[in-house]
Request: fold
Amino acid sequence: MHLEIPMPDGNICDCELIQKDGPGVLQLTDIGGIREANIQTAQQLADEGYTVLMPNIFYRESRPPLESLRTLDREAMMARMAARTAPLTPEAIASDSAAYLDVLAKHSRPGPLAVVGYCYSGGVALRIAAAHPDKIAAAVSFHGANLYLEGNSNSPHLVLPQVKARLYFGHAVKDTWMPEAAIEAFNKALEAWGGQYESEVYEGAFHSWTTPDSPVYNPDQAARAFSKLTALLGRS
Reply:
């Protein structure tokens, strides 16, 4: 079901809703936005009995389908990514997610909600869990980008003290967006946080391995990631 949500800033956010008589999950897209590949993964989750809402978190830039970044050279791609993500300040994420969660709660079974993010939106998922600690029971990130930024006052890991949810992080190998040193530092921050979490590296799985239209899609490891996701949702 396609929804158009009026946002606090006056814009319209396109969303895809797959409604089941079950708990609500907010599924955030990678930098590529809403497209058939992530609608497919949302349907897979809905088939497990969850109501899934997928918003166009980049609604300030464009309505779906968003411009593909894969045909651009690296310089142009980085510039396009920066323009796409720049409006999503921590304050904007908190405001936007309040609207998303209100809609999700109206269409799902009463009770706690969950959020899952991929690539860029892994950090967004963590921020949403921090902004709405009494609503979000579980937050999940797969091949999350820039979860730990040394010396950056806007690093996502800094919101951990506000999080009450159970957390899961599935990292890629040789990931320039989340290198080994950043994963180690992030794990230390999680340990200091003291909540319930799991953080692991998927052997042989590269950045974006869970996405069916990715050049490095890894079906076996994507299936394992999905089982981790549903297990955490079941416990939460």
